Amino acid sequence: MHADTKPGRDEILADLKNFIAGWFREGHDDDLDPDTPLVTSGIVDSAGIFEVVDFIEERFRVGIQDGDINLANCNTLAGLTELVASKL
Known about the structure:
Layout: H1 9-24, H2 48-60, H3 71-74, H4 77-87
């Protein structure tokens, strides 16, 4: 990502998918779709969501507030993608 260019949703989604696959699934991204439940299925536990938030803040240079951390935003790759896009 260039400093003057905002990533598109496809790039955000791909980066999030790669991170979650690498951090929580030993690199396996098969069956990680945009709507795959992450938290409610146990892929990402409640402590793990903070790893995801740290990744988002560092990778996309955005601030995530405590109120942003909820199931609507954090349970799927699609929700996380929309959260990041809304912060850019």
